[in-house]
Amino acid sequence: MSNNFDVVVIGAGPGGYVAAIRAAQLGFSVACIDEWQTAEGKPAPGGTCTNVGCIPSKALLQSSEHFEHANLHFAEHGISTGKVSIDVAKMLARKNTVVQQNNDGILYLFKKNKVSFFHGRGSFGKAVDAGYEVRVGKADGSEDVLVGKQVIIATGSKPRALPNVPFDEVQILSNDGALAVTAVPKKLGVIGSGVIGLELGSVWRRLGAEVTILEGLPKFLPAADEQIAKEAKKAFDKQGLKIELGAQVAEVKTAKTGVTINYTDAKGEAQSLKVDKLIVSIGRVANTEGLNPDAVGVQLDERGAIVVDDECRTSAKGIWAVGDVVRGPMLAHKAEEEGVAVAERIAGQHGHVNFNTIPYVIYTSPEISWVGRTEQQLKEQGVAYKAGSFPFLANGRARALGDTTGLVKVLADAKTDEILGVHIVGPQASELIAEAVVALEFKASAEDIARICHAHPSLSEATKEAALAVDKRALNF
Q1: In this structure, are 325 and 381 located in the same domain?
Q2: pLDDT tens across 183-238, in order?
């Protein structure tokens, strides 16, 4: 088999494997390199998302939600269960099965699309006449050398650690360790109230842990619409998820008996929190370790991310980069869109990625999702707008589900009625946001959504009603 390819992709996360498949669909010879592996040493493509991120966290969220429903809500439906217990080992085994199914699915897709897969760590060798030399370091110490006319870097990101507090994945946990805790801790600390902190904090709270989240910022979820963030915070407070804002961590100490976090609170007063385990979720950094970008002239920025232009071209001709390793939101679906766009650009087509219509989702309960601009952004930008909202409390399907927390909010231009943002907190917000993304991509007006027939009873009717409310003519509230 020749080791010369039209396109070599380094990384098989959401951006990398999708880029490889799309490039193969376009008729290129493609290789994809990835080093993730199972405990048995088998290839595990899918990157952080599949292995220690999006997929396993959703599996645990689902399991823990079932547990909470059985404990707190089955009786409302006339279902008697007796005492409910959780088998953490079995829950983790199910999570691992879900992950493996996704790993195997990607390997199948590579085979189906004739993508050559190389299991190992990819790094640049040098520029050659035919393109670029890419080395694949294997676990046994051997090495494959590939040559790609075009190279796509999709090496993703890794968790940011606290200064002088490395992850040991036993007491100080990244998202990786937090997904593999073998028993429900009595007390769990979380530093950072972003997506990872909220989702994993929710998992272990539902299973019985006393969870305290320390957030350095004075506002909760400042990237979200303020009204939505307040509604979500109110729900989390009610559930017993303790979120302390304005907390500045000064010191973290580990001992056999647990972890102690010394910090100052929002009032500037010294506080101390002792927990069994601590999840640190203070952001992620681009993963370029061992990539050897200097060898081919690929430039990094001051944060270690790869510098790209608007079309994901790096400083080296014929080398591209997508996903978490470049600027923009660190989201799996953003990486996928960039991966497809780059493959199409290599083929001379016009790949499409619109950062303004990328949806954001937090898979807590209630779920939180949004697309477009927030109300505070519109105010800061001096944009005249109209707002309409509708509570799930007035939605028939939400009542039947027994989940009426939250609302849908639609923001539209005051003159043209074009939708500028849609913000949701409530049941299945992750699914409901898709309609809003389509609406923004096609520059729909609030009137457009208001005039579209939505199935009854459905949660999506709340979106229609919020669009009607923009014009102050909601029908059911």
Answers
A1: no
A2: 999 999 999 999 999 999 999 999 999 999 999 999 999 999 999 999 999 999 99
Closest CA to 10 of 45, 34, 46: 34
11 is in an annotated binding site: no
Average pLDDT over residues 85-104: 98
Task: Please indicate if the annotation marks 330 as binding a ligand.
Answer: yes
| Separation of alpha carbons 5 and 272, rounded Å | 57
- Which residue intervals of 247-380 are DSSP H helices? 332-346, 375-380
On whether residue 477 sits in a domain, the answer given is: no
Is residue 107 within 8 Å of 117, Cβ to Cβ?
Answer: yes
User: And the tokens for 121?
Assistant: 């760590």
Q: Is 283 annotated as a binding residue?
A: yes
pLDDT computed for residue 330 by the predictor: 97
Q: For the purposes of burial, counting CB atoms within 10 Å of the CB of 104, is it exposed (0-12), middle (13-18) or buried (19 or more)? A: middle
Using the predicted structure, report yes or no on whether residue 314 has a pLDDT greater than 90.
Answer: yes
324 is in an annotated binding site: yes
**CB proximity list for 475: less than 8 A, separation 6 or greater:** 465, 468
Task: Please indicate, yes or no, whether residues 347 and 362 belong to a single structural domain of this protein.
Answer: no
Q: In this predicted structure, what is the pLDDT of residue 147?
A: 98
Overall domain count for the chain: 3
- Give the Å distances, CA to CA, from 219 to 72, 160, 192, 247, 285: 30, 21, 12, 11, 23
| CA-closest candidate to residue 307, choices 328, 290, 333, 335 | 328
Query: Is 58 annotated among the ligand-binding residues?
Result: yes
Tell me the CA end-to-end span of the chain in Å, nearest whole number. 66
- The single residue of 66, 73, 423, 456 carrying the catalytic annotation is 456
Whole-number pLDDT of residue 125: 97
Q: Is 82 annotated as a binding residue?
A: no
Q: Look at the chain and count its residues.
A: 477
Q: What is the pLDDT of residues 100-136, one digit of tens each?
A: 999 999 999 999 999 999 999 999 999 999 999 999 9
Does 141 lie in the same domain as 213?
Answer: no
For residue 166, whether the previous peptide bond is cis, meaning omega lies within 30 degrees of 0, is: no
Query: Is 456 marked active-site?
Result: yes
Please tell me whether residues 32 and 136 are part of one structural domain: yes
Write out the E strands in 154-193.
157-159, 172-173, 187-191
Residue 465 and residue 374 share a domain: yes
Rounded to whole angstroms, the Cα distance separating 470 from 476 reads 14
Tens of pLDDT, residue by residue over 429-461, are 999 999 999 999 999 999 999 999 999 999 999
**366 prior amide bond cis, ω within 30:** yes
Q: Indicate if the pLDDT at residue 1 is higher than 60.
A: no
